[in-house]
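Hey, resending since the last one bounced:
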Amino acid sequence: MEELGGGIPPQEKMKGKVLIIAYCFPPMQVIGSQRPYGLAKYLKHFGWDPTVLTIRHAGNFPRGIRVLPTEYSDRIASIKRLAGFNPAAGVHQQMGIPVTKHFSYPALRSKAIKAFRELVAFPDEEIGWYGHAVETASRLMDEEKIDAIISTSFPVTSHLVAKKLKQKYGVPWIADLRDLWTQNHYYGKFEAVRFLERRLELKTLSCADALVTISQPLADALKGLHAGKDVRCITNGFDPDDFKGAPSNLTEKFSITHTGRLYNGRRDPSMLLEATARLISENRIDSTDMEIAFYGPSEEWLTADINKYGLKDIVKVRGSVPRQEAIWKQKESQLLLLLLWNDERERGVYTGKLFEYLGARRPILAIGGANSIVKDLLADTGSGRLAEDSRQLETILMQYYREFKSSGEVAYHANDRLEYYSYNSIARQYSRILYEVTALRPNGGRP
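The structure tokens again:
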């Protein structure tokens, strides 16, 4: 990734105001919060004064960033309440319909629930934010000169808000798609809903001045759908400040740590579990040396898989923890586990978790899928390795394990390329697009 030129010095006097529309933002503890937070924090280094429009949270917003919190109406919860269900629990659970790995529900009732949900919550479950967000942003833009808008998804409701503001105020708008919209590899809605939503995507994003996504293959896909649009690639990143402080010591065991969601088995660790069980049974790895830990929402199928391979004394399911604790667990681990979906549609996808792992500065063991861009990034930065099949995985595991046994730790070998993925560098690239789509000049303010 090239560094931005164009004469934009760091810490320059503010010259433009940008509104960042981000449903996900700290203190919300989801990986999608980090990109808008990184932009809001570091764009001010490159001549921009950011304001973030997001939902009101129970915790504290980050210091030093101007935030406009809004109310939020949960449409799905309201429908559940009217139907006599507990709004805080899943309908499948309350109707006694089992949820298993890869979403294989009993067909008829599950499809009816799914179809109803997709139509009520169109285009996504956060549509209840739309009215509150437009109202709050309009008050701001009636009072202040906003020079540019960035909307980031998911949810795509953010883009609907941005389109409304673009039409109302004529402000340049950049639509940031951390994942693609109807081209998303996880998109699994009914065909009729997909048809309607594809039309909505085309109509909405046609108003944007530029589209940004996180990898070149995804950018190419966007260009194919949105013919003639200005489409850019800017990867996700990490904030070095998040990783300062304890712990400084690595675990005494050969530890492999995964933090985050497993998406009902789409992030599937079975290849690792199988390989570990085999290497232990062949006495190539001492079971007392090893620990595999999962931090994130509990999923029943994972416990079943752990028991299937006889690894309950080695593999621990720790549940969800605060993000700072998850980062500390990453920093003390010998290896960090990155699980990729074995699907051709993910070939061009960088997960947000990858960049958080880069910030932790521990070797990354990526598993699953012939994901060439992840493989190339790990090789380019020296941050880890990708195992595409069980044979490769066993070879890589044994190499790391022998190093651990001989020196007491797995060494980290990342190079200077790692800094290209810091949010300071990401914001630097974004600032160039902002200057291009607005009438502002990086060294002279408004013309």
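The chain has three domains: 16-72+126-237+422-437, 75-120, 241-420.

Sorry for the duplicate.
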